[in-house]
Amino acid sequence: MSLLKEKLQEKIAIERPRTEKLLKEYGNVKVDEVTIGQIIGGMRDIKSLVTDISYLDPYEGIRFRGLTIPEVLEKLPKVPGAEMPYVEGFYYFLLTGDLPTENEVNAIHEEFNSRKQVPDYVFKIIKSMPIDSHPMTMFATAIMSMQKDSIFAKKYHEGVKKTDYWQYYFEDALNLLAKLPEIAAFIYRLKYRNGDIIPPDPNLDFGGNFAHMMGIAKPYDDISRLYFILHSDHESGNVSAHTGHLVASALSDMYYAISAMLNGLAGPLHGLANEEVLRWLHGVYAQLGGKIPTEEEMKKFVNDTLDAGKVIPGFGHAVLRKTDPRYMAQREFCLKHLPDDPLFKYVDLLFKVVPDILLARGKAKNPWPNVDAQSGVIQWYYGVKEYDFYTVLFGIGRSLGVTANIVWARALGYPIERPKSLTTKMLEDIAFGKK
Ligand code: CMX
C-alpha cells in the first residue's frame, strides 16, 4: 500500500467513529432552521453539508485544514528555488490534514509520475472535437472519456465492501489528477499554439511540469502552483464542489463526478467569471484605446454595465463578506511581479471604485472582489491571453479539493444525497399559517 494511502487509512480509522457517534447518538439534535427565503433563494446558508478539508468564514475567508492561505504558503514544503509550495504536498495536506515531510512529498510525486500516462485515445477524442469548442467542454469530455478506466466502477461490479469504497475512489483520484496537467496543456497547445505539443518532463513537479508543457518560462511554474492551491477548495456548498459531491453520492465514480463538477464550474456566475473579468476589462481597454482610465471614467463603465442589467464579474460572493483572501494573495503576487502592468492597474482601480457603487445600489450582499477578479490578469501578463482557457486552470485546482472530499465522503460512508422538495402551494400554506 502506498505511503499516502496508508496514512489515509490511519486517519479514516480515527474519523469514522466520530461520524458514527454523531449519527447514532445525536442524530436528532437540531443544527439550524430553514426559511422560505432560503428554500427559494438557492439554499443559501443552510447548514447541511460536512467537510473537514476546508472551512469558509464569511469575514476571514478560506482555511484549508485549519490554515489560512498565507500559512499554507509559508508552512508547506517548497520546490527548491521556488516561492510556492509543491501541489503534491498540498494534496497530501488536504487529504490527511498533516503537513508532509520532504519524503512524503517525494512519495506523492512518484505516485503521480507512475500514473500520469494519458491514454492516446484521450488526445484523439480532443482532436476530433470542433476546434472552436470551449476548452472547458474539451476538458470535461477528456475526463469523461477515461471513465471506462475507473477502478471503483470495476470493483463495484465485482462486489466490494462499502467500507472499502474509499480505496478505489482514492485510486481513481490519483490516476485522474496525475493526468490533468497534461490534458489541460494539450488542449491549450492544440487550440492556441497550432497543435505544437510539448511532452511532459517526469523530473518536474506538478506545477513545474504544467508550466513546461504550456511552454511558458518561470515564474509561470510558481503561478501554476499558486493558482492550483488557491482554487482547490472553498468548502462544500459552491456549485462545483457540491456537484462533485452530489454525483459521487450516487456512487458514480470519480470520472463522472469530476467531469460533472467541471460543468458546474463552467458557469459565468462561478468559475467562468475569471474569463468574464478579462473580457470585460478588454472591452474597457479597447474603448479607451489602452489608456488607464480615471476613477470617474471607470465608475462610468461600471455603472453602464450595471444599468445594462449585467453583473460586474469578479465581485460579490454567496458566503464571503469581505475581500477574498485568494484575491489578496494574487494581488500581492502582482504587486511584486507586475506592479506596472496596465491591466493590473485596471483591476486595482476596480477594487477602488466597484465596492462603493455596489454598496450604493444596495443589492449585492458582498461588494468586494472574489478570486476571479485578479487571476486572469496574471495569466494574461505571462502570455496566456486566451481567456476562455482560464476556467480550465481553475478546474485543475478545484479537482484537488473535490477529489479529496469525495474520497472522505466514501470513507465516512455518507449516503446518497436526497433533499426534499415542496410545492409552491405547500410553501404558501406554511407562509399563511394553513399548515
Ligand atoms: N454585480 C452586480 N450585481 C451583483 C453582483 C455583482 N458583482 N453580485 C451580486 N449582485 C446582485 C445579484 O445579481 C442579486 O441581484 P438580484 O436580486 O437582482 O438577483 C443581488 O445582488 C443579491 O445577490 P447576492 O445575494 O449578493 O449574491 P448571490 O449569493 O446571489 O450571488 C455571485 C453570488 C457570486 C453569483 C454574485 O455575487 C455574482 O453574480 N458575482 C459576479 C460573478 C462572479 O464574480 N462570480 C464568481 C464568484 C466566485 C466563484 O465562484 O468563482
Describe the protein's architecture and organization.
The chain is mainly α and 435 residues long. It has a domain at 273-381: Cytochrome p450-Terp, domain 2. It is 60% helix and 2% strand. The protein has helices spanning 3-26, 36-40, 69-75, 87-96, 102-115, 120-128, 135-145, 151-158, 165-192, 206-214, 220-230, 239-249, 254-265, 273-287, 295-307, 325-337, 342-361, 372-381, 390-411, 424-431; strands spanning 54-57, 61-64. 44% of the residues are buried. The structure holds carboxymethyldethia coenzyme *A. Carboxymethyldethia coenzyme *A binds at residues 238, 269-271, 273, 306, 311-318, 363-366, 370-372.
Outline:
With 435 residues, the chain is mainly α. The protein is built from 20 helices and 2 strands.
> Can you identify the CATH superfamily of the domain at 273-381?
Cytochrome P450-Terp, domain 2
What would CATH call the class of the domain at 273-381? Mainly Alpha
Q: What amount of the residues lies in strands?
A: under 5%
Determine Rg (CA atoms, Å): 22 Å
Q: So how many helices?
A: 20
Task: Compute the average pLDDT.
Answer: 96
Query: Cα distance, first to last residue?
Result: 56 Å
Helix content: 55-70%
N-to-C series of helices and strands: HHEEHHHHHHHHHHHHHHHHHH
Structural class: mainly alpha
| Ligands, ions, cofactors | carboxymethyldethia coenzyme *A
Question: Poorly predicted ranges (pLDDT <50, ≥5 residues)?
Answer: none
User: What is the name of the CATH architecture of the domain at 273-381?
Assistant: Orthogonal Bundle
Shape: globular
